Amino acid sequence: MDLLLHIENIIENNGSDFELSKLFKQFIKEYKESLPELFEQSQGKDFLVKHTKKLDSILSLMYKTILRRMFGNYLPMRGSIPIAIIALGSYGREQLCVHSDIDLLIVYEEVEGFNTQRIIEKLFYLALDAGLKLGHRVHNTNDLFKAAGEDITIRTSLMESRFITGSAFTWHATQKELNRIRLHNPKEFVLAKVNEAQIRRKRYPISMQPNIKESVGGLRDAQLITWVAQTIYGVAALKDLSNTLFEDEEYKDYRIALELLFRVRSALHLICNKQEDRLLLEHMPSVNKMLGFSNERRLVSKVLEAQWRISNFTQIFVKKMVRPYLVDMHNIGKFRKNRLSRGIYEYDSRILASFNLKIESINHLLQILVSLADKEYHFDAGFLNQFTYTTITHPLSKKTYSLLKELFKKKHMYCFLKLFYDAGILHHLFLNFRKVLHLPQFDGYHTYPVDLHSIKCVEALENIKEPFIQAIYDEFSDEEKLLLKVVVLFHDTGKGRVQDHSEVGAKLILPFVKTLGFKEEHVARAVTLVRNHVLMSSVAFKQNIHNERALYKFMSSIVDSKNLKLLYVLTYADVNGVGEHIFNSFNSKLLKDLYLSSLEISQNSDRITDAKKRVIIEKRVQNNEDFQKLPKLLQTKVLRVESNLFFFRHTPADILNIALKANETKAYSYSVKASASLTIEIYRRIPLNISYLLATLSYLDVGSMEIFTLFDDLKYFKIDFVDTISEDEVSAIESVIENAFDMSRHVQIKKIDITKSQLNIDCEHSLTHAELTINTTNQRGLLAYIMDCFEELQINIVTAKIHSTKHKVRDSFLMEKQNDICNNVDKIYKLLTN
Prior knowledge:
This protein is an alpha+beta fold. It folds into four domains: 3-184, Beta Polymerase, domain 2 (2-Layer Sandwich); 202-326, Nucleotidyltransferases  domain 2 (Four Helix Bundle (Hemerythrin (Met), subunit A)); 432-602, no CATH class; 665-832, Biosynthetic Threonine Deaminase, domain 3. 54% of the residues lie in helices and 11% in strands. The chain is built from 38 helices and 16 strands. An eight-stranded antiparallel β-sheet has the order 9-10-12-11-15-16-14-13, sandwiched between helices. A four-stranded mixed β-sheet has the order 3-2-1-4, sandwiched between helices. Helix 1 (3-12) runs antiparallel to helix 2. The longest helix has 31 residues, at 296-326.
């Protein structure tokens, strides 16, 4: 479209403003439709600059059109009209993304003879009617200083001003005011921006679905260092400080990382056709294709690496610039008293280093860490700078390994590992991390990439919150604690290969533990623990942990009780390192039950049968003082409960408590607990509409379900949910339970897709029970659907174990062998897959 020619035709023919805005709107629409092709030409390289220049030309033409419209053929020189149109924010930086707001500043001067207000008004109307997404400010040049002082956001945006069109004289006057703003209270402004960034970084931590703009190492961090540099040094661009503040090579690496984020963000905007800054899982295939990476894992790994690079660069050099503002002369004496080495100090559990200090050797730096008291530390950017730019040669020296071993012995090593990660040397000190550096884990379970997850696991190990597990850990010898910390750090380093990562990891840890000088016994334990590090959680969450076959098979891999104890603590750390709230009261109980049952087996050389185990537990119940106070008839009823699982799954105190509540129940009773995750307990003598109950509560994820027939035809139900609810929601849950005793109620259950290949019925599970396992996609209402099918078939479910991720479920159900179910397996398959 020859836009200029069409504009002239409309003006010459005295066309309406509507015709002009319609013309621009069509032109902008065609331009936006061409953006994917423009991006594809270079896979997004220089895309934002080209896009910005195009918008400059459109706005310049709009301004020219307004002037032509108002002055006709007697158009004055553009520079004589006291208006300057200025780009702000990302538009000012020439980094404007496709669906971001176009931030404009219109500056004018009061000059007699020019109706500047009218010109500005008509320009805005034309731009908005044409479909441009404007964010704008209008100021007289004399008002700029006052406006900047009223709001730090305004001052920040003014720092990124770029002249588009209009009067060069007005722009020159504006620049004088902008420089005046920059020089006004720079310390206050800079420290406010740094504090703002610290809050943001806590709100948007590192993630495998990163926010390209806000996350740690995102575009906001890059903007921060630019704002600080402009305020303190008055430079137009950060690169002007190359070979002054930082080396040219350092800036080059930073800039390459930044360009990747620009390309990813642009691709996200084009794919979503809206402002979207999160690299979510569903967008990764399209972004990967647009940017030409080999696969999504490679794409995300490069994005995470880029964000690490930007975070490291900005942390170091922002602090280097602002440190003069932070110096408190009153603390100089305290620093001198707490000097660790020349130019390196400890103050208030923070380690600081002078930026004037030459980069020390890695052994010298590690020796400083070893010499510190055993507690948590924070590290100043100057000290981070030392570790980032120190030289590490391979193979590592014996001295280096010796120092690393001393660090592993400390109770607080997490802070050192995080320092190594932030400095980018984790994989240089621990070569096993080379393949898993910034490696994402798209399993619907992990929150962090492999390297950061491993460090988080060490943090969990050093901060055990379960008293029972802490007591086990405290019993370990110093050598065993040292070994366990090494295993926790290295357990996932076998990932990123085609082979089973547990087997690869077991091979990788072997040379490291040998180099550290562990005894052969501990070397063997390290290999066993890494090889089986997912086994305990897998068995606890996915299998019937009260089945003796499962327990003996589990212990055959673990070998002995010492390995079991070490694995239990390792599993605790591993699950806690996955992400917040992943380790909860539900899976805590499952792991503890598996541990106790397995420990009993490991400590008995003779095979314990279910019958023998039942007798042992019955004796414990009978020896309970409170149980002995029960009426003899009730004692007999409790001990005659048919289900072995009821005794296996509960402590004597639990059995007593359940028996008392059951004995007091007339028609039905229930309790709802919401202290941790939601738990519902129901005792009933009358029918319970279980499928209605589960279907109504299907918005909550079920963790496990127990159903036991006790005595006097009374059934006991316990449903543990993964989700937590507020106390305000308890009454609503209670109403649902009350309604579930109305057998006429029915909830339409959504269509559930299950294939026969996803089902397995094991009729040889035990003499009295068969087991159904379902391994299928995670679907809302799945459990309600299954229970509805069981009710139709009159199958009595004893217990259910639910294990789910975002995408998959693995559920198991123990069924009583009644109604000839093992001779009607095909009927069960048919109903469930119908």
